[in-house]
Design brief:
Blueprint lengths: L2 H9 L3 E7 L7 H14 L4 E5 L6 H6 L5 E3 L5 H13 L4 E5 L5 H12 L2 H4 L1 E9 L3 H13 L4 E7 L9 H4 L2 H8 L4 E4 L4 H10 L3 H7 L2 H22 L1
Helix pairs in contact: 4-5, 5-7, 11-12
Length: about 240
């Protein structure tokens, strides 16, 4: 699909809010946000980033000079008001929200502020929910689904924690059945070599810049990973 076709396609439907969830640290929310931003930008999509991990705004640091960005604390009711207003102000853009750890409590308390405005905003909420292999990943996912029943939810197994087959708890769970019965998909984010992931973190480079400036071996690994990620994201974003 060309950039023009992508833009026209987006114009024919609700512009989504992509919610990078997981509600705990270390499950890969920031990497998923970076991959999603890269995927959308490569397709010519206009994007606005909302970074809610205000104590460690890694994604904000990477993309603050690339796309419009807002740093919003979603642990407070005022932050949810700000989020709704940002979505309205950037009505011509897809919004990507990178969430902080322990965000589910705030979602339960204040999520209705966003949920009740989706129709007026002409938006739909699409959650890309990152999980590891631990039971609390499933429990937090179920809490989110109950708190925001109108969200489209896709589950992303982080390949950093092992192959898809190693996610036995999720793969055989009622939660997976519930997600997929609602039209959600279960996909796996490919693992990226640690040394390349560390390079991205240290240099704070957007992926499009990193594939041009890292050492040749690192670039090759990043190019491989980026290609695999695009296949995954095509399943849940297109």
């Amino acid at each position: 699909m060309t950039a023009i076709q992508t833009a026209q396609s987006l114009g024919d439907r609700q512009r989504p809010i992509y919610w990078m969830g997981g509600s705990k640290g270390g499950v890969g929310k920031s990497m998923m946000a970076i991959a999603t931003l890269d995927y959308l930008l490569e397709r010519g999509t206009s994007v606005c980033l909302v970074e809610s991990d205000t104590s460690n705004p890694d994604v904000w640091k990477v993309y603050k000079d690339v796309v419009p960005v807002e740093l919003i604390n979603l642990d407070e009711s005022d932050g949810w008001i700000d989020l709704v207003n940002v979505c309205e102000q950037h009505s011509d853009r897809v919004v990507v929200v990178n969430t902080a750890a322990r965000n589910n409590l705030a979602v339960t308390q204040y999520g209705q502020t966003l949920g009740t405005c989706l129709g007026e905003l002409g938006r739909k909420l699409v959650a890309l929910w990152m999980i590891n292999r631990q039971r609390d990943s499933l429990e937090l996912l179920q809490e989110f689904i109950e708190a925001v029943p109108t969200a489209d939810v896709h589950v992303v197994r982080n390949g950093y924690f092992g192959a898809e087959s190693k996610f036995e708890l999720y793969n055989s769970s009622k939660t997976r059945g519930s997600v997929e019965s609602r039209g959600g998909k279960s996909v796996t984010l490919p693992d990226l070599a640690d040394r390349v992931a560390d390079d991205l973190t240290e240099r704070r480079l957007p992926l499009a810049a990193a594939v041009k400036s890292l050492p040749i071996g690192n670039r090759a690994e990043l190019t491989r990973w980026r290609s695999e990620v695009r296949k995954v994201l095509a399943e849940v974003l297109d």
